[in-house]
Write a structure and sequence with these properties.
Number of helices: 3
Strand content: over 45%
Distance between the termini: 76 Å
Radius of gyration: 44 Å
Shape: rod-shaped
CATH class of one domain: Mainly Beta
Number of strands: 43
Length: 625
Amino acid sequence: MISQQGGAEALLGKIHFDMAGSVLTPESETMLKDIANKIRAEPNLMIDVNGYTDNVGSASANVALSKERADQVKAYLVDNLKVASNRIHAAGLGAQNPIASNETEEGRQENRRVEIVIRKPDALLIWFKNDVKVQPPTIKPDWLDPVPNFYLYRRYKITTGKKSRADILYPNKGVLSIGEDAMVIVHGLELKRKEKPLIKNFELQSGGLKTILRDIGSQDDSLISTPAAVVELYPQSSEILVDEKLKELVSVYQSNADVSAVADKGEDTIVKQEEPPEQPRPLPLAPVLISPQMNEKKFFPDDIIFVWQPSGVLSHLVVAEDSLFQEITFDAYIANDSLVSSLRENRYYWYVSGIDKDSLEGEYSDYRTFIVEIDTLQPQLKVSILPGKQEGEFIVAGHTDTDAKLYVNDEKIKTDKDGSFSYTIPKDYQGSSVLVRAVDNAGNTTEISCKIPRAPVFILGVNAGMFRMQSPNKNNTELGYCYGLEFTRMLSRSISFYLNTMMGKIEKEVGNELYKTNIIPFEIGFRKEFNLGSISPFFNIGSGFIWWQNSLNGEVIVTAGDDGRGFVDTSIGFGLGSRFYLGRNWLLNLQANYTHFFSNGQYSFGLDDANTLIRFGIGIQYSMQ
């Protein structure tokens, strides 16, 4: 059996975590298996799993992290080791209660922990006779057969049948004796505080009970509630009975007791020692809950703002993880009409009551429930890269969510109120791309890697297309197809040198005879580039030569000045086009070229009066930087 001396909490074990971490280690899982075996051996024990952090970071972040650690331990005990969930309460206490100095790394490591302790019982069933049953406050409660030294917690019920009795031990060594045919509800052992509302130790619904409190000081006063009265007992022997009609009958032996009549609903009174009870007075009305709304969804780690209309000088706010309010998250007395708190993902229930100037507590509001979910929605991020004002300079610009933090290559960038941003990439930056990252308050991240559209040093490509050629005798003005290679050398961001060569062919059938014209144009020149990010229009002008040859039915046509190897004429031309960046150094090239070539010394421009070549092409190119 696990023992608790003097009602103190028994520490079952401690689980440690890495900085900012909440992952269980194999060593921790082994320890939890041993702890689970001890818990299962004592089926009436209630367990507190308390998470802690070091003092690094904000208080709200530490509370959230410590709750996450406690939830991890509870989940492992419940899901993997089959410990009943209603026996475990997980809480995050942040940087409270350090067990070592936070000035050293070793001390901070000690403080990053989860402690698993036996919850301090509210009473102990030390003896019983005949028909005695105990009922825990579960959703579907069963009456249990107790064993000696059975732990009793808040809202446990104890019943005695005919000729049955039981004794309950207080943590302060006082003993409460329960007579036959009685039912007692344990409400907790907090003693009355004059500055707070009255807290009942026991509620007697029928039958009788006798309490024997040892004379160890006036702080051992008790409060007992019956259907018709509230009785405050002093530390001596007393007996209280309730008749079958549930009308109060109080007998006091060798002691003093203050008895106050139960007022109508919505009223209460104050009884002072050696003074008659005051007249019942109206209690504060139930406060009106404003926010969160019923079944409203909130996102972790955003703060939860509780708002209500107060009805007294103080408000009593209770937040729990279950509708029976057994798994209390926090219980606070507040002097204003709102509270800001950080809660982990879960469903929560909350209500508020009003407290007047004499610490009388009014009716609770109807509870509301809300859900805290992990925010998994990634922030929006739109990015573009544009040329800067100076050569070699680029600007990263775009837009993200207003609450997101923005980073360019891990450097934090300030955003405007509407989420827009602009960042100039330094000239000496040698990378080929930049990583833009947006991170929201929940830690969700959106990343975009943007290639810097620098002018490449070299470009190699292949082109294919169609051309229109007109020969000197004007008898061969036809369309043909062509293909070829191109080499480009960038001289600056906007000026390039190019070399282009192609092979083309025209085929035409006249009657039963097949005419062919083969051409090979070769051109060198310069281009003016207009770098617009992922698109680069250009204009080029160049000169070179063109080889062409005619054939009939596969036989070369030999004319004057031609020895059968074809003609070579000089040429001049210009063109328009654009490159489209496809990513990973690949480009799509579209262009149109006009070339004029000179034959037999004749020199004139125009399709009708001289030799011309018009090409339309598309190609794939690869850039090298």
